[in-house]
Amino acid sequence: MAKPHHLTGENGFHFSQPLVFPSPSPVGEDSSAFDSAGGTPLSNGTPSSAESCGLPLCEAKGIKYISAEQEELACGWGGFTPGCLQLFNTSKGVLFFLCVASFLQGMTVNGFINTVITSIERRFDLRSYQSGLIASSYDIAACLCLTFVSYFGGNGHKPRWLGWGVLVMGLGSLLFALPHFTTGRYEVRSSAEVGVCAANHSLPCAAAASSLSSYRFVFMLGQFLHGMGATPLYTLGVTYLDENVKTNYSPVYIAVFYTAAILGPAAGYLVGGMFLNIYTEIGRETDISPENTLWVGAWWIGFLGAGAASLLISIPILGYPQRLPGSQRYIVMRVSEAHQLKDGSHKKASDPDFGKTVKDLPRSVLLLLKNPTFIFLCLAGATEATLIAGMSTFGPKFLESQFSLSASEAATLFGYLVVPAGGGGTFLGGFLVNKFKLRCSGIIKLCLLCTVSSLLAIFIFFIHCPNMPMAGVTQMYNGSTLPGSQLNLTAVCNADCGCLQETYSPVCGSNDVMYYSPCHAGCRKVSENLRNGKKVYHECSCIEKTLLHGPGEAEAGKCTSPCAKKTLLLFFMFVVILFTFLSSIPA
């Protein structure tokens, strides 16, 4: 006797919907022909014509994927549900597209933006607190939208919320890149203007403060759209995955999803660092190098690419059904391990109509506040988010200032930390839960171990590298310490040069002291030949003569930091990131 043919999903489970021929008389009036758990047609040994046809053939005949509750389960947009799309109508298909979306979100928000902070500060005359507001606009939008999206989206069509969210996120990326195209060309002072001592006599007074700083509001709006769009991704996206896979597979799926989200920032740091080596005005030549403090890289390219990719990836996500074929049996078999209340209020929440109106929102919040496990997880997540937000936003800038690196070098170095530590930690956390079959008590112990390890490693930040000595800023020109927070860039050696304080172009003297500009170092000549790719200035009256270099000389750019704690600091930063993300999936 031939075995009946069934359409099966991943992991060998049957699709939970009957295949119905459109006809005047409804098929399946006999309830015994259907599995009550998911509406799967039960075979009696003789395959029906619906069961025996392949999916593309069935679609060609006008057959639809519907559940026992007459719910559409086909993948498509409206009435357009071609059979070829149903190959992606699985949990693995959803995982792929959500991983791409989370990768793009991480690459843009936690990668590109953190990489280009110093570049847009320089290009649009922003201060650090203003760039901090730009970075914080993402979290502000997420906080404002979180309750609304999670409450109403949780009871609605999750893929549509996810798709529209990714689309809004893409629009935010395009808006973030817009100021590059609406402002004038970036003009850099020539080497003569920022050059030797005598050249500055004929320079006019510095122009008034630039109005480009107003563009910070455009950046803040772009970040706000990023926050709005990403909110469904990390609330409804995880829920949608969890609802449509077996319980023991859920940690692995979510681990893969979050691993993609962590690899995104890593790629953002690396790719963004490469873009910063390209001059922002593509096609125009300039006589300055990326090491120059006036250099602005092509910060906007990444946002254009990520924005276009987000718009494209939102299309397939919008086509997914409210629940995947076969998911009903997972819901029926799932057993909750959550904290149960003893006052019977959880019975109210089990009402099918509970949570579908705004009036149920206060009761929902109250139920969560009475759940100690949930509250402590939220507190732990909030403290970790504070650490991650600060480190990801200003981590490259911290490395740049501590070790005298260029913006590109600092971003690339930070990316090398995030790739193995963040991505590996996230995936390893889900793997450990699945490998050792950890339940609530074991997961809590793992989270506690990771959190304590991360907490101990973070004390490395009490060790820091000393600032490079800078004449007129941290020390006087004669080498003595400058008292207090005074600033005195004028000395006897450069008093006749007429140097402009607005012209910041640091040079490193042969005495390993930094100077505000070649003019402030009293340099009167510049060599036409480069040394190690940098300009060399001669006859610098503020720099003492040395046996190695003869008369006082200076090289363009900051002095290289001699700090020997660099390796130690980077190692413990790696440990902090690793254990922070190792506990994210178990939590």
From TrEMBL:
Residues annotated as domain Kazal-like: 487-544
GO biological-process terms attached to the record: monoatomic ion transport
GO molecular function list: organic anion transmembrane transporter activity
InterPro entries: Kazal_dom, Kazal_dom_sf, MFS_dom, MFS_trans_sf, OATP, SO4A1-like
UniProt-annotated location(s): Cell membrane
Pfam families, A to Z: Kazal_2, OATP
Gene Ontology CC annotation, any one: extracellular space
Membrane topology, record value: Multi-pass membrane protein
Region: Disordered, residue numbers: 25-49
Domain Major facilitator superfamily (MFS) profile: from-to ranges: 94-587
Parts of the chain that traverse the membrane: 94-113, 133-154, 161-181, 217-241, 253-279, 299-320, 373-394, 414-434, 446-464, 568-585
CDD domains per the UniProt record, alphabetical: MFS_SLCO4A_OATP4A (cd17462)
UniProtKB keywords: Cell membrane, Disulfide bond, Ion transport, Membrane, Transmembrane, Transmembrane helix, Transport
Membership in a protein family: Belongs to the organo anion transporter (TC 2.A.60) family.
NCBIfam families: oat
Protein's recorded name: Solute carrier organic anion transporter family member
Organism: Gallus gallus
Lineage of the organism: Eukaryota, Metazoa, Chordata, Craniata, Vertebrata
